[in-house]
Structures
1.
Amino acid sequence: MYIDAFTVAALVDEFMDTLVGGRIQDVIDVDATGIGLEIYNNRERHYLYLSADRQTPRVHLVPDKLRRGLQRPTQMGLLMRRHIEGGRLVHVSQPKWERILQLDIEMGDEEISIIIEPMPRRSNLLLIRDGIILDCVHRVGPEENRYRLLLPNHAYQPPPPLEGRLDPTQPTLEQVEIMLSKVTDEKLKAVQLLPRVLYGFSPLLAREVVYRASGDINQRAQDVDPAALHQALHDVVAPLGRRDWQPGYAEADGIVEAFSVYPLTYIKGWQPSDRISDAITMYYGIIEGPEAYAEAKKPVQAAIEEGKIRYGAKLESLERGLKDDAEREHLQHSGELILAYQYGLEPGQTELRAQYNVDEPELVIKLDPDLTPLENAQRYFDKYNRAKRAQQGVPQLIEDVQQDIAYMDQLESDLEMAANWPEIDDVIQALQARGLMGRDKKIQRMGGGGRTAPLRLTHDGYVIWVGRNSRQNEEVTFKKANSQDLWLHARGVAGAHVVIRDDGRHIPESLIEQVAGIAAYYSKAKTEASVIVDVTRVKYVKKIKNAGPGMVTYRNEQTVTVTPHSEEVFADGAR
């Protein structure tokens, strides 16, 4: 789910009506990639959130005052305070069909622009003066993009414009027929085709149009009726061409699944909103600093503690059963004594009293009078064998429960480090999957619906991936990494999987130590003065069968002892 070109257009109209002419009274560092602006206009304070998060970028108004979520201001925040605080917002614009929004600000004799590019994986937030970049959240050097440098003191170069597509607001039936006739891939779905050939089309918009045309969002492109598709395009997109926005969000079972500026019919639970910002806020949740999440984390932490108690009790029971073999011995001895005394037993006898060892008290053995002595003995031997087999499985059960407890520790670390609603929601979903947390609508809604990505860092051309929770750890180790990449993890505690990509160059020890400090920082040992971090190759890291996401074993490790520190140690920062 992302902000598409039509949503940006609706935001432009909303901001032109609400914000233009207003004075920027405050600049807030909400998080590492997000800036908040307090804008006073028409005797009312408005709060605008601009996020260049690589996974969930967005720009929208929020209902409540934004709060600083970082201990130290970012360079971008400092520059914005210097150049735009006290300035007046004079215009908001969007390049046609682009997912780019520009805010023009008058500050004394200066004309400053804020450009937000809310595109997943390529998102950015830039401060521009006279066409020159003052700074940006994500700096892009020549090693990443030789054609579009995004660095201070360089001219701002917008993304290359889209070309060769059709205007979706006024296609003819003939154009639709030609578009469908050119499809040669029999497996290509119509929802995959439309974003490729129509300007401004997102996957969400494509699903809505295809659903209205065929009733099936998985319809193959070759099977779609051209006339029905043409009519659906007109019904959905024509109002957008007139800038007749109908904002809202789709909510089912307490989860906001999507937002849009047109009614969604292929998803149940459509709810109209007064503004598109309101719909976006419903999807992502309220934007505030980490200190505001403490209250929301309390029920999640309580569920984790309940899980620890539950698994701890189970482990104690299994360990007690492993040590207590008196019952099994009683079954075995009972069967042997029945065989030894079988010829002395009377028909209908219900009890046998006999000593197994001379120096021990006699055993009282219950007998079934309807069975022969041999059958009674066999019954005891069967019970003994079943108990013995069950006992043989206990060590594996103990290991499984120990992994469950370790996973609870990891989720506790995930929750502690969660810095936004989607990251809290990751923990909630993991607990719900194990039946440790009910599907409370209020709790689910706070998660929004976005999902956060692992942290991507670059330093001296090396790429580093950091998983900040168990789901991201799984992605970093088993999807992002190659077998020869270096893998780091704080020893003996829950925490981040960190990978240094091996691009064929020698990886210096100094870089390994710096990255180890980041691995220590994103672990439960982050407050320790000294942390041991294990370093190995990804090929030596293996998933633990039936364990939670990101739970692994590894071998052939070496260790480095470091002081925990954040990714700010790298001047070229996070990507």
Note: Residues 455-569 form one domain.
2.
Amino acid sequence: MHSLLTQRLALLQSQAPELLRQCHHGLEKESLRINHDGSLAMTPHPQALGSALTHSQITTDYSEALLEFITAAHSTPQAALAELDDIQRFTYTELGEELLWTHSMPCKLPAEADIPIAQYGSSPIGQLKTIYRQGLAVRYGKAMQCIAGIHYNFSLPDELWPLLQRAEDNHDAPQAYQSQAYIDLIRNFRRYSWLLMYLFGASPAVCASFLQGRPHGLDQLDEHTLYLPYATSLRMSDLGYQNSAQSSLTPCYDQLDTYLDSLRHAVSTPYPTYAAIGTKKNGQWQQLNTNLLQIENEYYSTIRPKRVAASGERPLQALGRRGVQYVEVRLLDINPFLPLGIDAQQAHFLDTFLLFCALHESPPMTGEECRESTANFALTVKEGRRPGLLLSENGRPRTLRDWGECLFDAMEACAIALDHAYGGHAHHEALSHMRQRLTDPALTPSAKVLSQLKREHCAFFTFARQQAAQHAADYREQPLAPAQHSQFQASAAASLAAQAALEAEPAVDMDRFVADYVAQVH
């Protein structure tokens, strides 16, 4: 009996073999601005880069120093990477003596109180964005918010879903079928995402200053560096994105409606610890509200269902009204050995993995399986390269390597289908290349980071600062062509004008503006 994956791929091959060429790919990359000595840049967002509020390609995430580069959705990952390269190349020319930190775990940070929160100007929406970040500071601390990563946005062709729906004799509304298919993808992603952490985790060590005296359970590599010998991604461990309130939040991924209901409850339900803080202190905003989540984006998930929102529309509203359009993969570390932190080979593997998750059978997850998947992920980020590491599959122990080999075998057909659509062998070659990391852990980015630290007898901070300087020099030696540079300058100027226009509008009462915004959850 053929599996669902086999049936779906056979259908594509027979009826629409080129359809997979219409997948879309987008990238979001975060990078801290640093001074030449490796310390956090305390300067405002450079005006030459435009407005962080209104620029479509260059903004900030949590801190004023945490740049975020955003590409459009492209038909190939190479095109998305090329746009990211252009954005980064332009940015380097406008930073003066400053550099971009090339690791996910931060540089040496100043005292917690001195880490600057991102500022977006005096417009109501600009103030709201800063208030939200102030809320993150009081809830989670500022240091955690300076961790950086790469988000990979991916969608399958809209024409794929009616084809599958007809073949499966499904009579749901088309929008409901497509949304459910993406939710099914997300469930499989949660089952198997430990594999991505093993293959691509690149943060096995951290500057000791990041912990700032907190208990951590890490080993000491040298006076200034903490690490775990088999870790793949401390960024994704409980040392990174952690919070006792969020640990109680377990959105249900059985259906889109149950997922949305979980988040609506979280953004509408007061949490005692946050209620004790209040929304204002001495007239100064502390957070948008005292609920478990201020807004839905506060939930730190490894993958999100997404829909492009209209102006003024909340993400929850966009998903509820028009369904899932794409997924946002949020667990990727920045690979410090790569100029962009990611390359085409990794993107081709991700496409293969996500196609597998979308087309493979994805039964509902029981509470026990949810806990098992969470435990597998947590074990892999801290001990993924440990020889013979045992994960748990349906309650039975299974070695990471053996399970990984079986997943690679299952993904083979997906890689072949993608190569048939695009032409060439890029996806199959990516699969073969990454399989080598499964058999030889020394080839993983996390192992390479530790190997270099030990070989050169240098601290994590020293190693990362040297890489930042080298990447900057490489980019500055080959700036954008004058015409491209002028286009970026024009975009920056237009974004500043757009922010000024927003700030010229009649003043509004911020209490009412915030209350109206946070109330829009349906």
Note: The chain has one domain: 4-519.
3.
Amino acid sequence: MHSAPELYKEDTIMSIMSVLLPAVTWLWSLQALLVSVVVIITAVRWKRSSTARLPPGPRGLPLVGNLFSLSKNLPLIYQEWSKKYGGVFTVYAFNQPRVVMNGFSAIREALVTNADVFSSRPLVQNPLSSDPSAKGLINEPYTPRFKEHKKFTMSALRDFGVGKKSLEGKILEEARALSDVISKKENKAFCISRLLKNTTFNVICSLVFGSRFEYDDVKGKELLLMIEQFSALRLSLLPLTFIFPATRIIPSFKEVSEGFKNTQLKLREHIREEIAKHMETFDPNDIKDFLDAFLLEAKKREGDENSTFTEEQHIEVVLQLFLAGTDTTATTLHWAVLFMILHPDIQQKVQQEIDSVLGPNQDPSMEHRSQMPYTEATLSEISRMAATVPTAPRHSTSSDVFFRGYHIPEATLVYVNIWSVLYDPQLWPEPNKFDPTRFLDDSGKFTRREEIIMFSMGRRLCPGERLAKAELFLFFTSLLRRFTFKPPEGGPMPSAKGVFGVVHSPAPFQLVAEPRK
């Protein structure tokens, strides 16, 4: 017989167990469910991988794949993985495969030899546009629409000076304005980054809007800030916030999602306002800038229900011209100034060549470029080491393809690691060493290298390449003609180690611009 206290104790235990057992059973059921989900997803992913025979790559975690390995220094990680897995391998973000191309051979084979398959873009809708079909140029798949708008954009840019003397005049006007602002620093230490962005921003403004901003203009400063914030985002994470909205609870994903939304909305609103102003003053017989040219093309197609020259497409194209054309060129110029500070002997050689060609009073011109082989070689080495756009915008396969022994299905994401080419020790011995002579032959003549693929390759070659090269040459020679760049006296030497974002930029540093006699 049990005593009363013992019976009470047993009853209490039984009561507690009656409450806990369902909870424990529920937890076991939840665990079993989660395990089942992981098993199913892994099995599906394994089946998909084994069926597709995607290139092998680093092992990831269940559910998330390699997500936690995809850090800010992604180009470096991809290059390191290529040492083990070769020029083409696969990584996963959740269960989404990404085929990564590394090295000049693999990239050229994909983007040039197999251009019919590797020239498209993934189908990701832009939630900020009222017209989901309006993707501009960068995000448009390789369709007749893309070809039509690329042809129009290239033609319009040529009409407004790209490759002509008229554009040189606009660039030199900005170079003089920049030099005047720098002169006012009077040998005091300052950061040149924002000034360079203001300069390249004004070149795009002149082409697109037909006007420029003064360096102290409030509106101009606000727009530049938006572009800077956009360029600092980790855009590699952005598509996942569209595909898996739940990822936005993760701080890094939330930062990218909100940053993208805020900058895009503000820049879009400004472009929309400019389009409205141009519509009020539009004269088909007086086409002054890119906005006018687009409006003219849209009017020619009025009544055509299949016309792609819509206002939303107009906004997308202009937005991409600003985002791609402002920060990339300015950042490369920022690297140029940094490398001149770090290598004063090279800076002096460039200045001597500029002086010998231009003399004391002549402005630089694109015609002078062939007369300045050492300067051209220095700019090529700057572009190589800057690697301003270290990974190309995402590609997507437009059909199934057998590539290097692997079966890559249609609509597979493809990442092109430009960095792996520009820093390949097989192509560039001691790739971290700044050496312009890589681009000079034994007689001192400039030698082009096909491996310099800062603007990518194939059918998605950047349409702004010619403009960017003109800006780099004319701004660089204009600045070194007037100033010698040095570190502040007694201050630390700036670092050549860059910061990865949308662009690869120098870490912030101070400099002194000493006027030349």
Note: The first strand starts at residue 88 and ends at 93.
4.
Amino acid sequence: MAWQTSWMIVPLLIAAFLLLVLGLSMLLLVTRERMTPTIGALLVFCLAGATWAIAEAYQVANTGASKRIWFAIGSGSFVVVVFAWLVFALAASERERWLSLPRIAPVLAGGGVLAGLFFTNPIHGALWESTIVSRAGLFVLDVQFTAIYGGAMLGLLTVTGLGIAVLWVYGTQRDGVSLRAIGWMVAGISFPVGTGLLYHVGLGPGVNLTPIALGGTASTLIYLVFTRELIGRVPLPRSAVLNRMDEGLVVVGADGHVSDLNPAAKSLLDLEETALGRTVTDVIPEWPDGVDDDRTTVDVTVEDGDRRHLRIRVSPLSDSHHSQIGLISDRTEQEALQQRYRAIIEESAEANVLLDENGTIIYASPSVERIFGWTSTEMEGETAFEFVAETDRERIRAEFERVLANPGYEPRLEYRVVDREGHECVFESLVRNLLDHPHVEAIAVTSRDVTERREREQELERMNERLEEFASILSHDLRNPLEVAEIHTTLAQRGDEDALETVQQAHDRIDAMIDDILTYVREDDTVDPDEIAFEPVVQSAWETVHTRGATLSFDMPAETVIEADRRRLQRALENLFRNSIEHGGEAVTVRIGRADAGFFVADDGPGIPPEDRASVFDNGFTTAEEGTGLGLAIVRRTAQAHGWTVTATESESGGARFEFGNVSFPSED
């Protein structure tokens, strides 16, 4: 590969060196300050300009085919410079809205595609074709640009002009901004634009000298950014700023001594002028030992008659990692408010829990220990669904997912929770999606134990059901005997002496119905089971009923023990015996014996038709003229209260058989 010399190489390399130095200074600044769009744009501007200058210098010095490659590298770098300028203009004019990722990303992506098209032109030739020719003793590129290149250049000029316009509008519309500084910026970018136009219209030495102009442009921009010339505002006196601050300010030098503090700091910390020059840890014992790049926060309590709670935010100064500045704020009111809220939460009858997006408990209020039995520490870090009863777990998980997907959805859920003792309690929870709340960033769940309330509601529901049944029975079943009594009373008044006997029978029927109705309504679903001898209960029930000539057969061992509520079991047996006698007559035989899972009561009467066996336990169902229709309903309710099953079938002799299942006989276990 042959080389040639030209005077243009030296200024190009000087410009490259200057741009590299400026770029490295930006990198150094980034290590000491946080990255900002302004610094980032200047960094890219300088490095891309240096790359362009080096590529142009190599292109001039080279005489072979690689001139085309270096020309493409320089042209692609030129595209990067233009888009870096646009980002700089947006950042310097404080247009953060346009620097947000959704808006700037498509612009930068377009710039990247265009730069890639320039870099790869030697492969596809879409933008230009070039040949190496000799002019005035130098080998130079004779470049023939295509229409696509013309369109690309028009777009790049538009981007450059847009940056200029943004800065100019900013300078004319914002108070305190120096138009002179804006003018220097516009002039700084206009210079390389002018040299580039001269190159493309064929004026000049035949080499693009724009990278040389970029050295001056970058120097101008950096100077204006990092001096007061950019904002042009008149600095306020120190006393007008620091002395009027509500926050305290403490400056600590590299030697660890207090070098400055404002009146607010003296007042908040109860200090005197003698604090200046002293070691900061002597003045503020809580001052952190070491402060890195990140800010450190410490809380301080000052006792000077009234207790005050202060917060000190300590940061390193930008000019030295060893110097520090501390901003002091009074948090006494906030601390008192937090203590009040903390006491309310701790003493609340409600449990307050915060969950992350996975349902993991990240905070549990102290009240959870009183409600659940688990401490806050034990619950935090666990999955909330594990505390929900298994039968409700999937439903609650589905509701949680719905809250995640729809932040406006705030359901009030009722479900069962397993406490530390393994008992199930009914809880009602209000669930709110506060993931976007800056001070919460979680799913908030406020819960209360409603077990007793739910039990009371269920008891009221049962009572209402019984009252409805009572009203239905009174309005329906008592009407017939009352009508009979009314008719025959009228007949008796007219002299029919036999009618009085019918009235008496109607009254007797009403009396029996009232007894059955009261028994049915008063019986509930609760029992007090105990291990009792079965045969004595059967005998007591049999003796209570007017059995006339009926026969009882107890086909079980006399020592049989059953687990049941004695009073409720005897009343159920009385109703079964009465039912057998009413339908089977005075000579009926009633048998009690063991079944597969319990016991049976059977008779040798006419039995129950198959189509009626499923309905005989309904209240009001009867086939007897004198029946109330409640006897077997009472039997079913007694069985259900014990957790038994009862079915009506046919006995071996064709009579009725009532079979009880799921019955416990401790004597046989």
Note: The two ends are 106 Å apart (CA to CA).
